[in-house]
Design a protein that fits this description.
- With about 280 residues, the chain is of the alpha/beta class.
- Strands 1, 2, 3, 4, 5, 6, 7 and 8 form an eight-stranded mixed sheet that branches.
- β6, α9 and β7 form a beta-alpha-beta unit.
- It is globular.
Amino acid sequence: MRIDLHTHSTASDGTDSPAQLVRKAAATGLDVVALTDHDTTRGHAEAVAALPEGLTLVTGAELSCRLDGVSMHMLAYLFDPEEPALLAERELVRDDRVPRARAMVAKLNELGVPVTWEQVARIAGHGSVGRPHVASALVELGVVPTVNDAFTQDWLADGGRAHVEKHETDPFEALRLIKGAGGVAVFAHPAAAKRGRTVSEAAIADLAAAGLDGIEVDHMDHDAPTRARLRGTAKELGLLVTGSSDYHGSRKTCVLGEYTTDPEVYGEITRRAFGAFPVPGAGGA
């Protein structure tokens, strides 16, 4: 089995619609794909309706968190999307995205970059607006060559000249909410230092003690020594190890199925979850 547990669609900051994403996943030869848009489940219904035969969909979301001033992301799998407490927190995070993006545009204007809110809103479309949309605007204007090049201290990285903080959930609260909604929690790309500061090994141990299920080890932002170190951490703490592409369509260079999750780990995730169940494809429209 080929299992990719971290992808994004136009419901957040990907460039493929949910329907396009699941069709591409099937064409790529994946058996299981998780749709984990940022702080939203709006793409799930479309993905389910288009799900090709032979492909299983894991519903999820990537929750924006912050611990001791460090931004981090928590992948939540197979939770009940209507559970009131987690739903309210996701809405709180999403509602902060528009004023935050507008503030980043204002900062860029102060730096002499002629980006406009209308440009960023056009790029975001119906998705949850975020830094990747602002980064794409910088690419369009020729300020940086790629989206990744916008995530530096010169521009949009944490603490960068045009960075603006947003509401982010305390990860211990996120764990409580995910578990309360019947989901499984995996710390996304925990050592992606190129994105900015990362949390400490001690913090990961504290999260494990609080109910964290796993860490995403095999990821494009982790080099081989980092992956080896994280595997050791996971073994020591009794955490599941996942692998994923973090696919965003054409917005990033990663490809579907670039990294995958072991079938036994996937099986354990499905056993632990009780908020929702994987959806087997029956040949979508």
